[in-house]
Amino acid sequence: MEKKKFRKIGILSSGGDAPGMSAVIKSVTCSAIARGVEVVGIIGGYAGLINEDIRPLSIMDVSGIIAQGGTYLKSARCNEFKYEEGMQKAIATCKKFDIDGIVAIGGDGTFRGATDLSIRGVPCIGIPGTIDNDITATDYTIGYDTAMNTIVRIGDQLRDTSESHARCCVMEVMGRDAGYIAIETGIALNAVGVALIETPFDKEALFEKIIKMRELGQRSFMVIVAEGLGTEFGEALTKEIEERTGVESRFVRPAHIVRGGTPTLRDRSLAGVMGDKAVDLLLNGVSDVVICSRKNQIVATDIKYALIVDRMFKNKLKDGDLDAFSAEELESMKALCEERRAYFNDMYDIMKTIGC
Ligand code: F6P
Q1: Residue 156 has what pLDDT?
Q2: CB atoms inside a 10 Å sphere around CB 85
Q3: Whose CA is nearest to atom 5 of ligand 1?
Q4: Binding pocket residue ranges, ligand 1, CB within 6 Å
Q5: Concatenated DSSP letters of 38-94
Q6: What local confidence, expressed as pLDDT, does residue 2 receive?
Q7: pLDDT tens across 295-349, in order?
Q8: What is the CATH code of the structural domain delimited by 145-259+342-354?
Q9: What are the sequence ranges of the domains in the chain?
């Protein structure tokens, strides 16, 4: 088959925004223009494709955006795009604006959209942009590092006031159903306890440790709770800590504050590398893949594989989900899930040993 000639590609960001999305937009734009391909920005995610909100992007348009928080192309979660009618409108827009392919930045919902378009003849490549780091196929998502650094800054400030007042601070952190942010920031903030979905939470051990450390003279404590445990969990735990240990406690939820801010070096550099790789692959005829970082290598993973391995890890597989995969692929999926489980178990053990 003759290789498709790409003259113009589109970029969009969709789902929850993440610091570093603008850096990806810059990387994709510059990489495509350097290869002689025009670029258009699709405003507001898939909704922009349905509503024909399309703007040409030049190198000058994106030259100052690498350090911008949020996303230069705006974002939204688009319900209409989940249905055939919406998708057909999006495809018609691609035809009307001569968009030969799309780079879509976001999380699993974004990749589902990218795969839907790819199989209907609009080649798409996904780039993982979400603070949650909840794309099992990649070790890191863009935005994760920045969000964690913001949480660590907030946590240090909370520690200051907790120390003055001899209190325990329970902080709930975002991450949707994933505990990556919780466990990593828990270790970085010297939390005495971390509660997350991926490992059983040893509440009694937490109370015992707080009591012991208070007897030794420790004034302040930090406990991190993953948002996936539900809105009531953190507040209820705060009350229980106070009742069971006698340590005055406060509950804090920084929520969307951690989604903003200028991206860290790590997120900017990942954005640069992944954006360039996505353009390179797209122009070379590859589509329906997500760019992943695996053991310090940048690789392309089939979107279907990425979505299903996510479900496997979260124990949310549906009937028939695994039918399309070879024995070798199934093995690698299982191994990847084991790797992620081992990560959470190891990190939880470390936190329990060193956190105080
Ligand atoms: O996926 C990013 C995220 O910030 C999650 O951590 C959180 O659960 C969710 O988005 C919040 O969504 P919204 O911005 O729609 O309130």
Answers
A1: 98
A2: 10
A3: 176
A4: 16, 107, 130-132, 174-176, 227, 259
A5: EEEEETTTHHHHHTT-EEEE-HHHHTT-TT-SS-TT-----SGGGSHHHHHHHHHHH
A6: 60
A7: 999 999 999 999 999 999 999 999 999 999 999 999 999 999 999 999 999 999 9
A8: 3.40.50.460
A9: 8-143+263-316, 145-259+342-354
